[in-house]
Amino acid sequence: MFWKQKECDKKLVDYVQEHYKKWSNLQTINYPEVHIKSPNGLRSEHCSSVYAYNEEDIFYLFFIICCDRSYLKNFHASTWRSSWTAQFFVDNDHVLLSGTIDISLTYFEDANINFKTSKCFEKKVRVNRDVDMFSSNILSAINEYENYILYDLNNFFTNISYYT
Predict the structure, then answer these.
(1) pLDDT tens column, 11-21
(2) What keywords tag this UniProt record (predicted)?
């Protein structure tokens, strides 16, 4: 089972590259040039990892994705923590994927505004013995839920003046 960890870790690195780093690079186009040793003043750090463990004869994979962004010119900082556990069943055809996405946004220009949210997800994901398909199915489910929370956040910020 630990061979699945290595393949998932490789796929997760690719996923973070595609969905976090490239997105941050595109976002810098919208930020004016400032000099704080980062492109256009936007500083962004990303990391990910997959850990495997066995508890009471049940095999688990733990996925974690972290993203920290700051743009000091407009006094904005944010963190994104996405953590997921894949619990294997006896039949090895499905895993129970449970995860939590924690988001913290801070604006501290004229007032200290903090927005924090946490959302939990759970889904039974069909997998098989093919390692590539296994990791792709798990990351597809993670991507689905991350997109879901991004859609909700965008909707919230678009309508925030309506709510206040």
Answers:
(1) 777 777 776 66
(2) Actin capping, Actin-binding
